[in-house]
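W.,

You were right to be curious about this one. When I first looked at the sequence I had no strong expectations either way, so I just let the prediction run and decided to look at it fresh. Below is the sequence, 313 residues in total, followed by the output.
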Amino acid sequence: MKRILFITANRLGDAVISSGVLAELRRLHPDARITVACGPVAASYFAPCPSVDRVIVVSKKRYDLHWLGLWWGCVGTFWTRIVDLRGSGVSLFLPTLHRRILRGGRRPGARIGHLAALFRGRKTLMPEIWCRLEQVDLAAEILPATRRYCALAPTANWEGKIWPAPHFIEVGRAMQVRGLTPVIFYGPGEIEKALARPVIEALAASGLEEGRGAIDLGGEGSLGLVGALLRRCALFVGNDSGLMHLAAAAGTPTLGLFGPSRASEYAPTGRKAHFVAAPGPEGKAPIAGLTVATVLAEIETLLAEEEEAHHGG
């Protein structure tokens, strides 16, 4: 039996971007059993993938001892192929027939484009999500088809990426007027919950009479379930974050909001993925400079495209 070791990202956004590599490995080696080594945040994202029979959580340790732990957990297997997106070098000390190592460190250009260099043809490797059947069923119970939903993700792992909460509230209220129920997504932990709370409370109050008050989905669910929930949303609007990439991979019409982070490197990828950036030099523009009017105009474009595609199909 073929066995593949796939060493990928610590952060969720990078992990989602890398999922196109995993999908390509599955296409090229449909009978292979794949072990994924990734950070703890991304573990539940890869776990539902049908070809993955093991996820090794690589938690950062002092003196890079996490790489020693990974080596120890993998050295007893003879690998058919190893793909290392971390540039860790650990694969140099593991038995394998083939290895591909992506050089670590930051460099210009779209991150997703760098990954294409791992395969012949250099085609774009589109991100994917995987959900278990029970996760799909549970998502349908949480977000029944009796309503239409707009996903909002008002948090991020860095304060500079976060569009002001009052702006998200304005967008959410505009969506309520359109007949969409806001669904609030955020990451795990009390800090992210506190960042999302003003948006949740304001939209819960404003939509109460119409039955379109905000739904708080929390930040602790498995990412397979989160992906299934995002698929049930008519629209996603959120900061540059792992959730943004997850929404785009889910095929949800996605609008990513960029300020000082670089859209040229981390714009969402997908057939229905758009982004808007604050005015100013890329990588330095304050996200507060991105106006609600600009975001609403892009939402109208995104929804119009979706409506046209629906009627065209």
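Here's what jumped out at me. The chain has a mean pLDDT of 93. And, maybe more interesting for your project: Residues 297 and 303 are 10 Å apart (CA to CA).

Coffee later to discuss?

I.
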